[in-house]
Input
Amino acid sequence: MGNEKILEIKDLHTAFRFQDEYFDAVDGVSFSLHKNELLAIVGESGCGKSTIANSIVGLHDKNFTRVSGEIIYNGKNIANYSEEQFNEIRGKEIGFIFQDPLAALNPLHKIGKQIEESLIYHTDLDKEQRHERMLQLLDQVGIVNPKRTANQFPHQLSGGMRQRVVIAIALSCKPNIIIADEPTTALDVTIQAQILDLLTELQNEINAGIILITHDLGVVAQMANRVAVMYAGEFVEVAQAKELFSNPLHPYTRSLLQSIPQSDLVEEELHVIQGMVPSLKNLPRKGCRFAARVPWISESEHEENPVLHEVSKDHFVRCTCWENFHFENEGGC
Amino acid sequence: MWKTILRRVLLMIPQLAILSVIVFVFGQMMPGDPFTGLITPDMDPLVIEEIKEKNGLNEPIPVQYKNWIVKILRDGDFGRSYTYKMPVATLIGERAKNTLWLSLLTLILTYLIAIPLGIYSGRYQNSHLDKAVIVYNFVSYAIPSFILALIFLLIFGYRLGWFPTTGSVEIGIPKGTFAYFRSRLHYMILPAITAAILRTTGTIQYLRNEVIDAKTQDYVKTARSKGVPTNKVYTHHIFRNSLLPIAAFFGFTITGLLSGSVFIETIFSYSGMGELFITSINSRDYAVMNTLVLLFGFLTLTGSLLSDIIMTIVDPRIRIE
Amino acid sequence: MSFLEINDLKVHFPIRGGFFNTIQEYVYAVDGVTFFIEEGKTYGLIGESGSGKTTIGKAIVGLEEPTGGEILYHDKPLGSRRARKKVGYNKEVQMIFQDVLSSLDPKKRIRDIIAEPIRNHEKLTDEEELEKILTLLNIVGMPPDALYRYPHEFSGGQRQRIGVARAVALNPKLIVADEPVSALDLSVQAQILNFLKKIQKDFNLSYLFISHDLGVVKHMCDYIYIMHRGRFVETGTRDDIYNNPQHIYTKRLIAAIPEINAENREEIYKNRIKVEQEYREKESIFYDKNGKVFDLVQISGTHYVAIKSKEDLKNVENNIA
Output
C-alpha cells in the first residue's frame, strides 16, 4: 500500500435541515485515505455512512444540507465547493459507484452514451477517441461483447452487467479516489464476489484509493485494508481489517459481530442489541451514544465526552466503556 | 410492431360496432324526434306523421339501425342532417377542419405555456417563480371554463376589441389567400388561448412533480457524480425522463381536444365539431349525432393506440411486439 | 409426519406474442420440484434472483396457480380455490413478506390489519377479537398502544413483527417466509430470527424460509433446498449442504459467501476462483444439453443431488482429489 495520503477529512459535520433546525447526521468524523488503500465504512442504516460519501463529492441537496469541517483533496479544502467546482473533480478525480445499478443508469440512454458522457467533460478526446475509450472500458470491466453492449439500454442487461457498466463509468477517467456506496447489496452472492474481485483488480491497475460504504461485515472482512465502524454519526472504532475482526473492542462492534447468524450451533440465540437506533432528531449529543443500548454497563464506565483513543497501533476505539465491557448474559467481570 | 398496430386496428371494428348499436338505441330513446320542433298549433299532426313516415322514423328500431349501417358500409353515406339539409359527411368534414386547426393551435399553446413553467417550477422548487406557478395552477384549475371564456370575451373581445367574438373566419375573404389564413388565425387565437390555459394545469402539475421526482433519482445522481454540468443534467437527463408521462398522454390529449372543445366552441360560436354536437343533440338530428359519437369513439381508440406507439418510440423499455 | 406434499410442481409463465397474441413460449419459473413439509420443522429454499424460489412460495399459499403437479394437504389434493377452502387450507398456511410496509395497508390501523384474517375466517364478538389481537401483540412483543396506530409509525423490525402477528393470528401450521429479514439491519434481523424461532416452539409451526442469504438459512433451517433455473440442484440437511456439498452450483454459492474473518482471505479467494473454473468446466455433468438441471439422485439417507448419474459424481470427486 502506498503511503501517500490522497484524501484527508477533518472533523466533518454534515447536517440536514428539518423545518428550520439543522441536525448533524455526520457528527465530527475525521479520517484519511491513502493511495491503493481500501477503507470500509460499516454501519447500520441511518448511521450516516452514505452521508459521508455524498459530502465528499457534494452530491447532497444543498438546500437542505450544511457541511462544515475540512475535506482536503489535493491540498485544497473542497468541503464547501460550489456545484461548478465539484463538477471539475467529480467523475474525473473521484468516481462514484452506486447501490442499485438499474436505478443508477438513465433508462433512456444507451450504455455507450452513458459511459462516454463523462469523457466529454473531462478529457480532450474527440468523438471517435471517446468511442474507442468507451469500448476499451467495457472490455476492461469484463463485458464480453463491448460493441453490442454499448448499443443496449440498461434494462436489457443483467444486474451484474449493469454494475460493471456503473464501474466502467466510475473508472472512465482513471480517478484517484473511488467511492463505492453499497456496490453489491442489490446483487446475488456469486455476482457480488465477481464484482468485488473486479473492483480490487481495477484498483490495483490505477492505484486508486477506495472508500467502501457497506453494512455487510463479510464483504468488509474480505475486502478492506482498514475499517471504520460507524454508529449514530460517529466513528466508534477504526482499525486494520485483520485487527478489527480478530480483536474487536468497542461494544457496538462486538455486538454486531455477535448478531450475525453464522455459528453452527443452531439452538443458540442470536445476540440482540437492546433498544433502537435513535433517530436523527433524538440523537444524544452528549456522552457515549451507545450507552443507551448497553444499560447494564454503569455510567462511570463511559467517558463524559467520548473521543477516539488509540489503544494499540492504528487501532482506535471511542469511549472507555469497552475496557470492562461484557455482554449482559455473561455477568460482570 | 406493425402486426400489433394492425391487430389493434382490426380490434376497433367490433368495438365500434358495439358502440354504434348503443349510440343508436340511446338516440332513439331520447324523447322527441327531429320534427318535434316543427310542431306548431297550426300544423296538421298528420303532415308531421307523413314526414316521419317518409324518413323511415316509424320503422322498428332494429330496421332503422340496419338501414343506417347498410348505407354507411355500402355507400359511405352517413345520412343527411335534418337541420342543415346537407349530407352528414360533408357537414362534419367542414366542421372537423375548423376543430382540427383550433385543436392544433390549442395544443401548441398548451405546451408552450406548460412545459417551460412545469420544468422551471420543478427545477427551482419553492422559489418565487414556483410559488407563482402554483397559484396560477390553482386558479386555472378552479375557474370554470365558461367563466374564463366569458371573461376573455369581455376583455379582449368587447372591451379591447382585439379579437372577434364569434365565428371562425371573416366572411367574404376568398379561400386560399394569405388574408384568409390570417383571418382564420385571428378568429382562433382567443378560443385557443382560453382552451390552452384551461389545459395547462394538468401538464404543469405533472411535469413539476416529475422533475422534482427525477432530481432525486439515482441516475441523476450518477450524472452529477460524472461531473456533468447542472444545465446539461437537466437537458440531457431530467427533461426527457420527465416528459415520458406527457408523451404517454399525448395521443389521448389530441383526440380529447378534437372531441372535447364543446364549451369553448359553443361560447365563442366557433363552428367546430363540439358546437355541432350540441346543436345536433338539441335538435335530435340523429344522423349527425350518431356519426359524431362514432367518430369520437374512433378518435378515442386511435388516441390510445397513438399513445402506445409514441411510448414505444420515446421509451426503450417499452416495446410493443 | 408430513402434512403438506408438493409433487412435481410446475409453474410456467406464458410469453404471448404474434398476431393473435397466442402463447409463443414459456418461462419455466418452477419446473418440477418435489418436497414435503413436516410439523415443527424449518425448510430453507435458497436460490439467486430468478431461480423460482418465490414462485414456489406463492404457489403453496395459492397466490400462483400451478401449471402442473399437485399439492397435497393431508393427502387431499388442492387443485382449486374451492378445494383449498374446504379443508381450511387458507387458514393453515400464511405468508410473510420481505417488503412488509407494502404488504400492510397504510390506511388501516394495526388493529384492523391483524384482525383481517380473523374476520375472514372466524366469527368473534368485538371483545373477543380485541382480546385476541392484544394477545397476538403481546406474543410478538409489541405494546398494546400499537393497536390504534398506522404502519408508517413503526420501524422496519416492528412492522415485520406486525406482519408475523397477522400471519399467526389463525394458528397456522405453516408460514411461508419470503426473505423476511433481507431488508432489515443486522441487529433487527437477529431480533426477528430469534423471535421466529421462539414462536415456532410455542406453536409447533413449520416454516418455509425463502432466502438468498446462506448464513440466515443455515441458522434457521433443518432441511435445505438449493434452487437453480426452476429446479432443485441439491437437497439435504444443513449438515449435508454446508459440510458436504456435491453439486457444483451449491459449491459455487458457498464459495461466494464472504466469511466474517479477515485472516485467510487469500485462500478463500483462491478457492472461489477454483470453484468458478470448475463450474465452467464441469457444466455438462450437472446440466443437460439445454442447460436444464438433471433429476435428483439420492446419495445418502437425506442428501440428494441433481446429476446425470452417480458415477459421474464419483468421477468428479476423483478429479478434484
In short: Chain C has two domains: 2-228, 238-321. Chain C has 14 helices and twelve strands.
